[in-house]
Amino acid sequence: MKKAILFFCTLSLSAMFLASCSKEDEGEELRLSFKTGGSYVSADTTIADGTTILIGVEGETEKAKDPIIKFNITESVNGALGSTIYTEDLEDTEYEYDLSYTLDDATSGNTHDLTFTITNRDGLNEQVSLTVTVQ
């Protein structure tokens, strides 16, 4: 009987130990959002050729041991494969960037998808994007 009680106590302690060591929800540790207010564009927009707009992003991670290590901006025109227009290697828990974007496209109706991506040391990514359409 004592062995059974000892076995169940050991089993219970082991279960509590394993439960306390489980990984946190990693989907919430990395955040990226557009800056809003002022002259920032933070949603899909339509502008004329030659117009310059300001797009700002703010990123952060909750874990200092998994800092943001890369920031990347890609541009895709009319759904084609995106190309990198800016990239930066980092080592920080917070990051912000302002992109002064001048539309250089005279073809009305063309769409330019801009995707902003941050990556942490674990390889997790967070992205935000918006579409700029030629007027």
Query: How many domains would you count in the coordinates?
Result: 1
Total DSSP E strands: 8
CATH class placement: Mainly Beta
The separation of the N and C termini measures 82 Å
Note the run of SSEs as H and E: HEEEEEEEE
Structural class: mainly beta
Largest sheet: 5 strands, mixed
CATH topology name: Immunoglobulin-like
Structural features:
Immunoglobulin-like; elongated; 135 residues
Give an overview of the whole structure.
This protein is mainly β. The chain has one domain: Immunoglobulin-like, CATH 2.60.40.2550. The chain contains 1 helix and 8 strands; from the N terminus they run αββββββββ. A 5-stranded mixed sheet has the order 2-8-7-4-5, with no helix packed on it. The longest helix is centred in the first third of the chain and has 19 residues, at 2-20. The model has no long low-confidence stretch (mean pLDDT 88).
Question: Would you summarize the structure shown here?
Answer:
With 135 residues, the protein is mainly beta. 14% of the residues lie in helices and 50% in strands. The protein is elongated and about 85 Å long.
What secondary-structure arrangement, pairings included, does this model have?
Layout: H1 2-20, E1 30-34, E2 45-47, E3 52-61, E4 68-77, E5 83-92, E6 94-102, E7 111-120, E8 125-134
Parallel strand pairs: 2-8
Antiparallel strand pairs: 1-3, 3-6, 4-5, 4-7, 7-8
